[in-house]
Every structure is written in C-alpha cells, then in structure tokens.
Amino acid sequence: MRVMAQMAMVMNLDKCIGCHTCSVTCKQAWTNRAGTEYVWFNNVETRPGLGYPRGYQDQEEWLGGWTLKNGRLNLKAGGRLKKLLTIFSNPKMPKIQDYYEPWTYDYETLLGAPAQENFPVARPYSLISGKPMNVSWSANWDDDLGGSKEHAVKDPMLKGIEDKVKFEFEQTFMFYLPRICEHCLNPSCAASCPSGAIYKRAEDGIVLVDQDRCRGWRMCITGCPYKKVYFNHKTGKAEKCTFCYPRIEVGIPTVCSETCVGRLRYIGLMLYDADRVLEAASVENDHDLYEAQRSVFLDPNDPAVAAAAERDGIPGDWIEAAKRSPVRRLIQDYQVALPLHPEYRTMPMVWYIPPLSPVVDVVKDTGHDAEDKDNLFAAIDTLRIPVEYLANLFTAGDVAPVNAVLKKLAAMRSFMRDINLGRNPNEEIAAAVGMGGEEMYEMFRLLAIAKYDERYVIPTAHAEQAHALEELATDCPVGEYGGGQPEALGEGAGRPVPVAVENFAMLQARQTSDSLENQLIGGGSKQGRVNLLNWDGIGVPEGLFPSRDGESAQTRSEEPS
Amino acid sequence: MTTFLWVIVPYICLAIFVVGHFWRYRYDKFGWTTRSSQLYEDRLLRWGSPMFHFGMLWVVLGHFLGLVIPKSWTSFIPEGIYHSIAVVGGMLAGVLALVGVSILIYRRRMTGPVFSATTPMDKVMYFFLGAVILLGMVNTLSSSGAIAVGDGHYDYREGVSVWFRSIFWFQPQPELMADAPLSFQLHALVAFILFALWPFTRLVHVFSAPLGYVTRPYIVYRSRDARPGAGVGTRAPERGWDRPELQRK
To answer: Do A130 and B241 touch (CB under 8 A)?
Structure first.
C-alpha cells in the first residue's frame, strides 16, 4: 500500500442553475490572455447537448483516454512509438473550429462615432485571423437547449436511447454540467506527453503542465478524453486547469468554487492507494469501473491507513483533513457522488451528484406529489429517461448506481419534508435506501446548508515548504536564472506578483496602508518586501535588513499566524 | 577572402550556434517550443509536415555519412555503388523535404491565421532554410550528372567533407573549399548562416526531440519542491511574436 493524497471536488448538479459564474471568474483569473481566448478551464454545458469542444465525448472519433487491449491498459490514440511517428502532425487534434473561433468587437467604431442618424454597429473580428467574421459557435452555443433540434440530437451520450428522448419543448429534460479538469489518478494527458512536461503533484495530486518543459507536441490535447488540455496558440504551449493550486496551497478554495452562486461545489482530500490505481483502471467490464475506483480510496479513520499515510509522508493535519473531507463523505459514506465517464479509465477525481430534478419535474407535471417517496421511487424505476442518460455520463451506462443515488436523494426529500412540517421524522424512509435517520439528516445538512468551512476542507501546504508556495512567493522565480529584478521601474518592478484573485485586494492594501506588512488570507505575511527603487533613503523600512536577532524576514513570514 | 569565408565565418557561426543555444535554454525555456500552428489549419500540415520532417531526418543522416565519415572508412564499398546509393538516397530525401517545405511555405503564406502568426524571424529562417535545401538539391543533381555545375565531376568527399571535418580539428583547410564548385560553396555558406540563426528561431525544437518518452513511465509524479518558485503564471515574459492587441487591417 502506497498512500497518496488527492485534492478532489464534488459538484451537486441539482443545485446548478447554469449561470456560468464559475466559467467567467475562472476565465478572468486564468485565461484572459492572448492565445487563450478559446480556453475555458471551467465550462458549463447544457445536457443533453454537444459539450465543449463539440462532441468531445465521442472517443471513437477523438480517441482520448485509455482502452483495454488484451487485459492491458493502452492509450486509445496509440502508444509511445505511434506518438513519436506522428509527432510532426497529430492525426487527431481538434481544430479551432471544433472549439470556436474567438472574436472581439470593433468597439472603436462605437466609441469614435460622430453624432449621426443611424446607430453605429460594432462588427465582430476574429482573434485568430484579425478579419471580420460571422459568429457561428461558442463555448455554450447550445445553452439551455438552444437549437436543440439541430444540436442536442447529436449528443454522443444519446446513443442507444435516441428514440426515448424527446426534444419537444414540453417533454424534454435538461440539466447543467459544469466541468473542470478531472485531475485524474491515471491521467492520460500526462501519459501522452512526449516531453514529460505534464505531471501529477505528489503532495496533492493536482495535474499541472510545466510551461518550461512543454515543447508544444500537442499529444496531451488528444490524450485527454475530457478535452481539458488546451493549446495556447500564442505561446505554443499546453495549458490546463490548475485546480487554482496557489489558492489551494494556502487553504482557500478554487475560484470556480469560491464564486459558485449555487454553492454546489465541495472540495476535500481523498486518500488512495497509488499501487492499486492501474489494477483498478484495468478491470474488464466498464460497469465495474465505478466500484473499482471506489475500492482504491482509503479510509483515513482506519488506524492502519492513518499509520501507512504517516509512513508515506502525509502530514498529520492532512490525515485529519481527509477524515473531515466532504468529498470523501459524499463519495464513500453516502455514496451519492459518481465519477464523470469512468469508462475513459483515467480515474477522474471531480465527481458529480446526479440531478434528481428532471425526475421531480416529471412527477410534478403529472399532478402527483413530487415529495412523496413512493411516487419518486416509482418514477425513477419507470422513467428510462433521464436515468439512462445519466448512467451514460456517470457510470458507463450502468443504471443501478444512478438509480440508487436518485433514490437516496428522493428519500432525503421526503424525509426532510416531515421534519420541515414539524412532523416526526419517518425512519422508514431512510431505511428504504439503507440509511439511518441520523445519517440522512447529516447528508441533508451537507448537501443543503453546509457552511463554507464544511464545504471546503482544504489543509494548507506545509509551512516548512512555504518558500516554494505560489501565493507567498518569497522565492524569487528569476533567481534560478541568475537573479535580478525582471523590470527596473514601473508596474512590473519588484518581486513577481502571485496569481490569486486576492492580488487585487492585496495590491490595494499595499498601496493604501502605511505598513509594509500584509496579511495573507491563508496565513503568513508579506513582510520583507522592500522595493529599493521606491525607498527615499530616509529611515530604514522594516524588512530592509534582517532583524537583529538574526531572524530573517523570510523565516518570520513562514510562521503560521 | 578565402580565410574569411571558410575559416572565420564558420567559426563565428558555430560559436553563435553553441553559445546561442546555451543562452536561449537558460533564459528562454518558456519560449522553447515548436510553436505549432496545427490548431489553425491541418489539411495541408498533415501532408507537408511529415514529408518535410522525415525528409530532413533522412537528409541529416545522409550528411552525416557524407561529411563526417572519412572516405577511407567506406573504401570497402565500390565507388560506383556508394555513389549511386548516395545520389538516389539524397534525391529521394531531398525531393521529400523540398515538396514538404514547399507545402509548408505555401500554407504559411496562404492560410490567414498561420500567416498572421508568422514572425519576422520565421520569414528570415524560411528564406535560409529554403535556400539551403534548394542548393543542396542542385548539388545532389550535379553529383548525379543530371545537370552540369562547374567543370565536370566534383568529389565532395575529398573536398567539402575534409574541410568540414578540419573545422572541428581546429586545423581548417580553407583552400579545399576555395576549389569547390560555386553551388557547393553557396550551400555551405548559407548552411552556416542558418546555424547562426538557429538558436533564435523555432528550429531549437530539434534539440528537444522527445526520445526519453520511449523509456519513461507513463505517469510522471513530481514533488512541489522539485523546482521552487517555478509555476505556471508567475512569470509572463514577452515573446517576440506576442502582439499585445488585435491587429486589425
């Protein structure tokens, strides 16, 4: 047993209202640069629908992920030799048109227009060619089933159930699916990278692209079945969701989670047995992959696991955090969270609680009581749609686990109605789905009213390694290139600014406060940052010299506050 | 003039080549990439790029045999057979590379997005690269006797090759090059200029051919501390090809 820790996420799809706030804030934080216009580390898809990029789930077409050949796991797009032989032109890479051609508007015309009879018009210009263009697709063109008769019918996940799904407006169903990088336990993007630039962080399992090592061979883009590795066409390098690691390291949630209006995201640790990942990813039957992946996870409450984790260098507070992890509770204890497309065999680590609302809507529309457990149970059993559709997304087509989850959610709905109406809770309802009343109430609390610190249980990275953390940035990144300030004057002067959203507030605080000390959200301080060019020569600002007792500013900043 | 062209220029170019790569690797690892334009266009690239690259790999192998390996080492192969292998192999590789590079240059010029992603350095590089390949084809053809360059047959293995090796022994023999036909002289000269440009172009990707991929494990684990301070978004170095705003014409 080799215990490793993985930062993981669960999203409760019933609560997603499709507002795209996560996508927009993520984009503002990470991909509002030239070359990444079409890059959405986080996107929200309407299902049924094509997704982004169009039809990415059809792996017979895109060849992402792993496939089982003679009992052995192989990259679906071909192994090492094939990758090297096709390196000069990747045969299966999506074109920019499969995403969309990014554009901007000619705002100058609006701003500079003289007074005139007709309103001036801002025309769209392509950010790829710089020419005027017609906007004909985007990251969520089929949002809210827009154009579904044309687009949603092409959803690869409808295979085999096409006849059952109605796209008549009154009869259809839909829900939203927010997607980020899955930070897989068995990432096929990393396996596809010829340069070895994509790596899984040993401490928290976050999958990152080393921008200094990436050589732009583009194999990762094909390798990732979720199409969550993007090619920055200006820098010629691959970029992907970073799980906001500079924020996670100091104990704050990702930007998408932080700004989620529906509060539907949960972040926490999972402990798993790294030695068993390959075995679990190689089980014969696609339907067994969900259980196989669950069997890889370890229970931090088990003393043997805790001891092994300690032996493998996982800090004590991380083991404690794993015990409190909301993600672990949803995946392992309540078993209501399911992986997205386990059949890609990458062992994804962003899991989803499938939505009950399409079922509730159907029951409600028929005039029956949609909070009665028997009505809901009967509906889940008889309604092939949307259960089969959900199964295609979350369990490789196996309806049993989806049924079980939906029944738990339905039971919780009925169970809580009694409590809300002041009646005695009916333990039978909980027992019908194999849960106790207490447990069901705890699940309700976590799903419905859990506060910030219950939804996000994120242990900070360790203080003894603090100099390497992005948010603290006490290390000079140019130091390894011989030191020196990147720019002598102006905005870029001084130490590089870390990348979290809090920069703005921090920057403002630094500009408006007299003190040189800035508290960081995750603890620690920014003490010791003195820009000599701004120093007027009068007095000695704190941090200019190491303090007298020999304790340097840097070591002080590493002390937990 | 002989000394300048066949001693000084080669040494300057090679010095720039070596020091330039060292400098680029140290200060611009982030810019060290193929800068693929496949995202923009891949119908022409699908044909042009593999033809050019495989052709060039073959060409490089041919140059290794012809330039680096002394004639005496291959004396067991009859002159006629060696010559025909070299000419036929060289022709095939040359045609492949030439057709490939033609497709690629056509694509670069005619595909809007690809053209607008082309830097001035790319254009300079394409000019010299194209010139080297063309002159190389002329030399191959003249060796085969298909076209006449200069006065009759020229054995480059007793001229150009010996001079080329002499550079690396630091006992250059420029007089050998002075006697070579003009097309050989030009080919060598343009090639050295290309070497001097090399570290400052996208050609650097040649040196990151990912051969280690064959032996490394599929999944790479790395500790956070492996390279302190190095992260995705910390530095934002300016690249030569960065255009701050949308260029609208």
So the answer is: no
